[in-house]
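--- STAGE predict ---
source: upstream dedup step, 1 unique chain passed
mode: sequence only
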Amino acid sequence: MSVEFNHTIVLSRDREKSAHFLAQILGLEVGEPAGVFLPVETANGVTLDFATVETDIPTQHYAFLVSEEEFDGVLARLLKAEVPIQADPHGKHPGRINRNDGGHGVYFLDPAGHGLEVITRPYGSDPASELNGVTEEVPARG
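--- STAGE serialize ---
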């Protein structure tokens, strides 16, 4: 049997708000509630099960691999929703995207404070790319 990642639980203060935020930004759909969980399923069958909790929520990081075309849609939805973006996980390049491995990448926070990342190339897929470490400004919409 091959090992595949199937699902994870994403803690939030409001499962509806967090699940719908992620689904809207990534162009996915929110599934039917399953007990305390509200699922969002990705194209490869991995489900993020959102749950509302009343305790401190440790910040988690979730990265999503998309096509270049899908990235453009994600970025447009982030900008339209006025979600602050950055090119790196430490916030050193706000309002920018990265070009690592010859692709595109962006970081942003969800309503629960989790760090989300959308990339078009897996890490290390092109270690010789001249674009590694390059960031690009995203034009303000107006």
